[in-house]
Amino acid sequence: MSFLNIKNATKAYGDVEVLHKIDIAVEEGEFLVLVGPSGCGKSTLLNMIAGLEEISSGEISIKGKTMNGVHPSKRNIAMVFQSYALYPNMTVAKNITFGLEMHNVPKSECASALADVAKLLQIEPLLDRRPGQLSGGQRQRVAMGRALVRNPDVFLFDEPLSNLDAKLRVDMRTEIKRLHEKLKTTMVYVTHDQIEAMTLSTRIAVMFQGYVQQLGTPKQIYDTPSNLYVATFMGSPSMNLLPVDVVDGTDGSQFELKVGEQSTKTVELKGQRLPAGRYTLGLRPEHITDPESADLESCEYLTIESVVEVVEPAGADTFVTTKLQGISVNTRMRGDIEVVTGEVTEFSIDLRRLHFFDPKTELRVELEKVGG
Amino acid sequence: MANNAGQDDFQTKLQNWLPKIVLSPSIAAMVVFVYGFIAFTVYISFSDSKMLPSYDWIGLANYTKLWKLSHWWVSITNLAVFATLYIGICTVLGLSLAILLDQKIRGEGMLRPIYLYPMALSFIVTGTAWKWILDPGIGLENTMHQWGWESFHFDWIKDRNMAIYTVVIAAVWQTSGFVMAMFLAGLRGVDNEILKAAQIDGASNWRLYRRIVIPMLRPAFLSAFVILAHLSVKSYDLIIALTGGGPGRATEVPATFMYSYTFTRNSMGIGAASAVIMLMTIAAIITPYLYAELKEKK
Amino acid sequence: MSNVTQDTAVRTSTFTRIFIYGLLILFAAYYLMPLFVMIVNSLKPLSEITSGNMMALPEVWTLEPWRQAWSKAQIGIEPTGLKPYFVNSLLIVIPAVFISTIIGAINGYVLTKWRFRGDTLIFGALLFSCFIPFQIVLIPMAIVLGKLGIAGSIPGLVLVHVVYGIGFTTLYYRNYYAVFPTELVRAAQIDGAGFFRIFWRIMLPISGPITVVSVIWQFTNVWNDFLFGASFAGQEQPMTVALNNLVQSSTGVKEYNVHFAGAILAALPTLLVYIVAGRYFVRGLMAGSVKG
């Protein structure tokens, strides 16, 4: 039995089902991120784990004990909220120890727990202030402190960084990761930000419309997205999608790729095949790059010449837009490249990183080895 | 920490029910004292109650009788005149004062409470004061005469045809400051960037207010209308204190009509019928407003 | 208010500004005039009023009308002055305001932080009750107060004012609490605080501003009430009813100066509350808490 087990969990408001039979097993010490757009049900699921929302059917258990119907305060969990939810009328110290006080922990123990947490989060000078006197980043730390002091079985985070500015968000992200590596406590983290999901998690559950679309390690999710939704949701800029007609070739399958307005190029999937038919081809921007950035040695690149539509320098990288199959596609080149809008330049496509999806079911289709 | 996993324990169940338990006395009070009482009064309006409530059903007889009473017609005509002028003048005055006060006025902090304080007074006090000011013998007319304006003539409060307008004067004095505050709040909520954009577009101040600001105050207009309309239907105290419904019946309104028919003229059935009509008038104004408000807040 | 909301970006010329100030001051005079008349004439002997000008300052200053109004004037049949009625009003207002505010706070807390199916409907029904013309409840209320044995008594009037006050107090607290994130309550739940503990420890300590609004509103409404007082008070009349009796009494000479002193006495508590705490009320008003 897993540490935190979500089995067939369903949530319905009246006749409207918003979460459909969710199954996730989280092992002790894992960092699970629930990621998806707003309204996908990720926060509802987190609230169900916390006990803040009832579970309509199914079961959620922690350490083998069912949590259905157990009051939030008795689940030995702690939660950090998006708005931090600090009690405005209490000092930072009181905010942190309020939960201990509610559980009748002796004063001396409260004090030492508070001291430990304050030291860990470096908020000692703030303890006598009120939340209104703190900056966003400081409030965030206090909110974490309030969760940490409980020494819970599971930490729950509900978009804790979304109210911070961009730089602080990156700093706090690192801090949360460091904290997890130090404490090794099980954490469940909700976010709509796919970068947070990738960087923090040991496993990600991508959610959409009340379903878990894919559950796996960040690498699995990124490298082998199981459907079109996951493929486009994860990664920024998002994956380019092109309709292609795959036919049987001499050595594996092949398809025609229209480059620019006139020319076409045949792409051969050497040694690999797909049943002939129409597919949606997925190509991440970083897998269409300039020949110098590409590792051409491996000779699994296809280099084409195409007209540059838009150039967006972003410092470390340059994003270049061009036209393939009549569709504008995003490509990613090195930062110091010199390309000019309207001129022809070379693009190298990494043929090992092609993703094929069934246009009807939107599911991933795996290539088969020829004769394998 | 205790980790009493298991089925719904008693405490958790209690916690789930507490909010509803705590709310229930209010709901009970509301059901009995508001909706129950309304139902009762509606029933009385269909009964032959005279001095005491009676439960003998006589159908619409009270209503037909009511609509044949000239006294009732005087009351509703007066209400129509009063409400139209009261709502109209309060809105115009309130909006004008709010716009003027919103021009970065030095001393706004002094002026605002001066405009608002009448709201703190009871209608009885307002009525007492204005009754006297409007009295031709000792009030404004007398003062003007003493100041040398001999031809000044102002005796509306004693004039059957004009007395209802004196009620408007006193009522406007009492409430227009409150309406001003509502509009001021609305004006302060208008996004300054819109004003700046319009000024860059070359709009004059007059056009700026007429075409951009005032249309954006729609919610304040609506709130002001609803509050003023329901106040005017309910107005009772002011008329009692200012004119007592007179001279003659010249300033009777449904509220005073209801009271005198129910408690002094021993025609409780007719009094109840008039109360039901008052309620229906207010409900027709309030219900759509509340519906829209609550729907949008949900 | 500039700290809460913004100043307008509209710009005006100097000439227009002089005109605006002129108008604003003129209106200030209009609003102040009746109060001025009342105060000035309550300090004059009666002879000066009947012969003189209502705008003129007293030639002989006297507090006698105030003394008369407070403790000697004939109200109804007894020459008691307004004092006992003033006390009646206090005895009605204080418990009525206290109880209706507490109930409103708890209702607002439940309706925003412990939402359940149908809560909007309940709130709507409660809100509607704020606007009903009270004429519709006069008849059954008279009967029920009689049955409860509290007709013509102060507890009876307290009950009436509480029942018809909770709609407004609930509205205030609901709109105020709605702004605070529900996450506050969730965090406290996880911390182990129960329904009442969250209310006392977290919600009430932040309710200062809206409590001022609710108390002022209820105080003004209950103190200024005339209809319920006139209908249900019996011998325990509130100030407004007594003042009306004083002013409308048809016997003897009309002692206008005493009437004015009485009117100011009747207005004094609400005016005081307004002067002391009115700023906060306006702030609450402007923050949109009186939407409705």
Describe this structure in words.
- The complex is a heterotrimer of chains A (about 375), B (about 300) and C (about 290).
- With about 375 residues, chain A is an alpha+beta fold.
- Helix content of chain A is about 25%, strand content about 35%.
- Chain A has 2 domains: about 5-225, Rossmann fold (3-Layer(aba) Sandwich); about 240-370, Nucleic acid-binding proteins (OB fold (Dihydrolipoamide Acetyltransferase, E2P)), CATH 2.40.50.
- Chain A has helices spanning about 40-50, 90-100, 105-120, 135-150, 165-185, 195-200, 220-225, 230-235; strands spanning about 5-15, 15-25, 30-35, 55-60, 65, 75-80, 155-160, 185-190, 205-210, 210-215, 240-250, 255-260, 265-270, 270-275, 275-285, 290, 300-305, 310-315, 315-325, 325-335, 345-350, 355, 365, 370.
- In chain A, the strands form 6 sheets. In chain A, strands 6-7-8-3-9-10 form a 6-stranded mixed beta sheet, with helices on both faces. In chain A, strands 13-12-11-15-22-23 form a 6-stranded antiparallel beta sheet.
- The longest helix of chain A has 18 residues, at about 165-185.
- Chain B has a single domain (about 70-295), classed as Orthogonal Bundle (MetI-like fold).
- Chain B is an all-alpha fold and about 300 residues long.
- Chain B has 13 helices and no strands.
- Residues about 1-5 and about 290 of chain C have low confidence and may be disordered.
- Chain C folds into 2 domains: about 15-60, no CATH class; about 85-290, MetI-like (MetI-like fold, Orthogonal Bundle), CATH 1.10.3720.10.
- The chains are: A alpha+beta (about 375), B mainly alpha (about 300), C mainly alpha (about 290).
- The interface of A and C includes residues 52, 84, 103, 146 and 158 of A.
- Chain A: One of its GO terms (cellular component) is ATP-binding cassette (ABC) transporter complex, substrate-binding subunit-containing.
Portion of residues in beta strands of chain C equals under 5%
Number of DSSP strand runs of chain B: 0
Please give the radius of gyration of chain B in angstroms.
Answer: 25 Å
Level-2 CATH architecture of the largest domain in chain C:
Orthogonal Bundle
Q: Please state the structural category of chain C.
A: mainly alpha
CATH class of the largest domain in chain C: Mainly Alpha
Supply the helix-strand structural class of chain B: mainly alpha
Largest interface: B-C, 108 and 103 residues
**CATH top level assignment of chain B:** Mainly Alpha
Count the beta strands of chain C: 0
Shape of chain C: flat
* Count of discrete domains of chain B: 1
Order of helical and strand elements of chain B? HHHHHHHHHHHHH
InterPro entries (chain B): ABC_transporter_permease, MetI-like, MetI-like_sf
Subcellular location (chain B): Cell membrane
Protein name (chain B): Sugar ABC transporter permease
Keywords (chain B): Cell membrane, Membrane, Transmembrane, Transmembrane helix, Transport
